[in-house]
# Entry
Amino acid sequence: MKVVYEKCLHCGCCVGSCKQNAIYLNDYVLEFNDSCNKCRRCIKICPVGALSLEGE
Amino acid sequence: MQSFECDIVVVGGGPGGSMAAKYAALGGLDVILIEKRAEIGAPLRCAEGVSKKWLEEIGVEPDPAWISAEMDGAIIVSPSGHTFKLDESHAGNEVGYVLERHLFDKALTEQAGKAGAKIWMRTAATGAIIEDGKLVGVHANRMGEEIEIRAKCVVAADGFESQMARWAGLDTSLELKDLDTCIQYRMANIDVEPNYCEFVIGSAAPGGYVWIFPKGDRKANVGIGIQGTKCKLGADPKVYLDKFIENDPRLKDGTVLEIVGGGVSTCPGMEETTADNLVVVGDAARMIDPITGGGICHACRAGMYAGKVLAECAKSDDFSKDALQPYEEMWRDRMEDKLWRNWMAKEKFATLSDEVLDNLVLAIKDSDIKEVNVYNLLKVIKDKYPEIVDEFESMI
Ligand SMILES: Cc1cc2nc3c(=O)[nH]c(=O)nc-3n(C[C@H](O)[C@H](O)[C@H](O)COP(=O)(O)OP(=O)(O)OC[C@H]3O[C@@H](n4cnc5c(N)ncnc54)[C@H](O)[C@@H]3O)c2cc1C
Ligand code: SF4
Ligand code: SF4
# Structure
């Protein structure tokens, strides 16, 4: 997962929305673990569009 | 690795966690509350609007230090601009406040500390410690150091992120239709009504609404929530809010002082909020009102109930799911019917066209409502447009 930190508000909306509990918000940095199934939900709901899939 | 022991570890220093910590500590328990951020209540993730009545219920005296502005009433704006404005103070109602959350939250945490709870800042839970299938504490990172905190019971009060309960095995994940994604600007130099909370409904905010909650002196929280399933553009909340502000002459030349994001659940609450040695409170248990998005009072009440029940459980040293049942009963008795009714109303409203919403606001305008709350609004709708509420008519 790619994060544009210049946009990210550290709001945790992606963390709470991820069904897989695959995201952790730590010291203003988002960590994604292996349980991510690339469902794109976090990308869809991020209020500022800070997320995308790697390579897209 | 350092290991600590206590009776209760509370994860999250928001209103829910602080109230739980306070009441558990008042009951004589050894409580550690951990908060991952560096400051209680900051950064803000809230529009800060509350009614007045519930503060007494949770035993908190209103303090001017954490009240930004007092509200006289509300304004509801329909998609094509029909407004319904109600000055409730004329009717003698105890209307509401717009809070200063970073101070309100600190006041509650201070009370928890005064009651005897230890408050550890910059300490983030990172997982559950489960031994022989039993939850016995949390893994955490305290200012860069990995530690473990062992406890008889864990209170998951980590807000919308709601990871603690999930690490411990209780699924608190949401359907996309049951969450709203939000953005808010703290704005200054704007000409909004200083004592009215404004709600704009319809396609300006698909499946949610735009709010303008005044903060005194030409300032307000101006924000938007959009239903997860209705996000189409990438950055939908920001795109819609910017468009709204651009088209509102009162706002378009305003100054943005702060940008905050956040998520709110719009479901009727989790089916289970307890497990052996685990209690889930507030946003983590998805207790937000599905229509208004208000959750501060729910988190405070649930936290208080949790703390009191934990103190009772300690007497028999039993924190099993069965022993924690009084907590489920207390919060459900107080809040569950309303959460369900408003969830059903939300499900319906999210399907209505701008035209129908216009008609609803006109109907409300003609009515003699004395107090703006979801129940009263639904009653008017039931009289004029019974078909809209027929699926949950019995709850109105
Ligand atoms: C944009 C927006 C507007 C809102 N407007 C209103 C409103 O006008 N009125 C209203 O009543 N409600 C409103 N709400 C809802 C309200 O903010 C919440 O219901 C309320 O804050 C819930 O309190 P809580 O204690 O459950 O969670 P929170 O206040 O979210 O507190 C959770 C705490 O846990 C901490 N935490 C998270 N993970 C960890 C971890 N792993 N380890 C340690 N600590 C952790 C967080 O840092 C946070 O401090 C709004 C929400 C949003 C997003
Ligand atoms: S939802 Fe977007 S803005 Fe919020 S923390 Fe996640 S990536 Fe950052
Ligand atoms: S893509 Fe889906 S599974 Fe992966 S982090 Fe985002 S929401 Fe979670």
